[in-house]
Design brief:
It is a single chain. Helix content is about 25%, strand content about 25%. It is α+β, with helices and mostly antiparallel strands. It has one domain: M1 Pyruvate Kinase, Domain 3 (Beta Barrel). Strands 1, 4, 7, 8, 9, 10, 11 and 13 form an 8-stranded antiparallel β-sheet that branches. It has a 3-stranded antiparallel β-sheet with strand order 6-5-12, with no helix packed on it. The protein has a two-stranded antiparallel sheet with strand order 2-3. Helix 5 runs antiparallel to helix 6.
Amino acid sequence: MMQSVHSLCIGKARLFKGGSKSAIAKQPIAGIVRIGTQGLEGDVQADRKVHGGPDMAVHQYPLDHHAFWREEIGNLALLDDFGAFGSNLAVLGMLEHQIGIGDRFRFGTALLEVSQPRQPCWKIEHRFQKKNMVEAILRSGRCGWYYRVVEEGQAQSGEALALEYSAATDWTVSRVFNALWGDPESVNTAQLKELSRLPALTPKLQAKAEGKLG
């Protein structure tokens, strides 16, 4: 798999709701960007308790999903923004069911490893001023995912995001998302045990899978 990155996007912490701050509004940045273990240089995660850190350094939300959202919430101008959902990488042709936890992608000189799905939160609904978007993500599985940075480097828009190593796992982003946030009847005890020990999955979600075992 190899897809061109249309844009790299970063965000600054801004007042969001009730005095809280958020950097979900990512905007394209021109030129060469350094990618370190904490993410893209200049990018901010306002709430470090739930966003950012080495295991969630770079976020990718498929551009393909913007068409779904136009049908779901209307043709809002905000959906023209590459970073409308807080995505750092604007890419077409990569979807959750195609991407495995632990897959590694070369982007410029950096090496990124898929670490977990993105859990939807209320900030998406507040950003778009539309209710039921979280429910739509849970229903449709259009969640996006995070990378950790295995090798720091630099990249720029127009360069390829190229699969360098396939984890060859059945645990795709879609399957992990469904197991942890979807229909509880769709996952059994053996699968949860396997998920709780999945090496490339973030420790937080390993623990979440273990917690579902009771």
